[in-house]
Design goal:
CATH topology: TIM Barrel
Largest sheet: 8 strands, parallel, barrel
CATH superfamily: Aldolase class I
Helix content: 25-40%
Number of strands: 10
Shape: globular
CATH class: Alpha Beta
Number of helices: 7
Strand order of the largest sheet: 1-2-3-4-5-6-7-8
Structural class: alpha/beta
Oligomer: single chain
Length: 203
């Protein structure tokens, strides 16, 4: 069954709406320029209430290993997600398991992921406006022609309406949604969360 990650969590209400609907992982964005940013204190307060079977993922963009480790330890994150232009050398300094995100325009962006030795990839749609949460659609053909060889999540423009179709086309390990489940930037729509998780699990 496809795993579901809901990213850009900023409130206890949104976190528990997702938990009650059967989410597998929640993402907390620690990127200062994101409208979905959570502080370490805010994230920790939410994470402390969550059941152990829900993974917690901290999203970082071009941050140092020292800061990543500090926030990860403080919040007790399950995993960290690198969503910037980091180099593989940073992995030696990070203590937590790492998911590396790649902005995809074509198949070559997918094959470039092979330079990273991480347990999970995340393939997101490329956007010149910034990393993640843009609502841009991922070019699925790039994944069909370039199987990555590592379990991967897909993100980029996923909604309750299209997630099942995406899963059937590229068979990802998991799906990741953020802006497609919002009523406003940083605020999730409870009904969209429930419909998204149900659609993904039934696909």
């Amino acid at each position: 069954m496809t795993k579901v990650k809901i990213c850009g969590i900023t409130s206890l209400r949104d976190a528990w709406t997702a938990v009650d609907a059967g989410v597998d992982a929640l993402g907390f964005v620690f990127y200062a320029k994101s409208p979905r940013r959570a502080t370490a204190l805010e994230a920790r307060a939410i994470i402390r209430t969550l059941p152990p079977m829900v993974s917690t993922v901290g999203v970082f963009v071009n941050e140092s290993a020292e800061v990543i480790n500090e926030i990860s330890g403080f919040c007790k994150l399950s995993m960290v997600q690198l969503h910037g232009e980091e180099k593989p050398q940073i992995l030696s300094g990070i203590k937590s398991p790492v998911m590396k995100a790649f902005s995809v325009r074509n198949a070559s962006d997918v094959t470039s992921a092979s330079g990273w030795r991480v347990p999970l990839y995340l393939f997101d749609a490329f956007s010149s406006s910034g990393p993640g949460g843009t609502g841009k659609r991922l070019p699925l053909a790039a994944l069909k022609s370039s199987p990555p060889g590592v379990p991967f999540f897909v993100a980029g423009g996923l909604t309750p309406v299209n997630v099942a179709s995406v899963i059937r086309q590229v068979h990802p390990f998991g799906v990741d949604a953020s802006s497609g489940l919002e009523s406003a930037p940083g605020w999730k729509d409870a009904l969209k969360i429930k419909k998204f998780i149900r659609a993904a699990k039934l696909a």
